[in-house]
Each structure stands twice: as C-alpha cells, then as structure tokens.
Amino acid sequence: METQSLDLTQHRCPMSLLLAKRASQALVTNEILQIKVVDKASLADMIAYFERQLFEVRLEHADAYSFLTVIKK
C-alpha cells in the first residue's frame, strides 16, 4: 500500500492540525500518512488527535523537523 506524504513545514497550528485531519480522513485501513512538521505545538496537537482517533502513531526527529507517521487502524 502506498504511503501518503504531507509537508506541513510552512504551517502552524491550527492550520497544520486541520490539514492533517483532512488528509487522514481519506485513508483506508492500514494506509500510512507521513507528516513532516517543524512546529512543536502542532506536533503535540496532532499526536493527541491521532491517538484519540485510534491511529497507530510513530514519531521520528531530524535536525530541523519531525516526521509523524500515522497508520489507520
């Protein structure tokens, strides 16, 4: 199954959370969405949202940004 990508490095909350929610709604079971984020507040909000929605959540940090990987269950 193809991994979807979403680059939110140019966005901050609440827009980044809204865009991540919209992108996740199109996912089917076991499909993956990888989100690139720089804003720590946005990242925290997205993690909380996806955990409440019962997505599998994985987080990786790079130098200037983070990758949030969510899998629809």
TrEMBL record:
InterPro entries, alphabetically?
Answer: TusA-like, TusA-like_sf
What Pfam families does the entry give? TusA
Q: Where is the UPF0033 domain?
A: 5-65
Tell me what this protein is called.
SirA-like redox protein
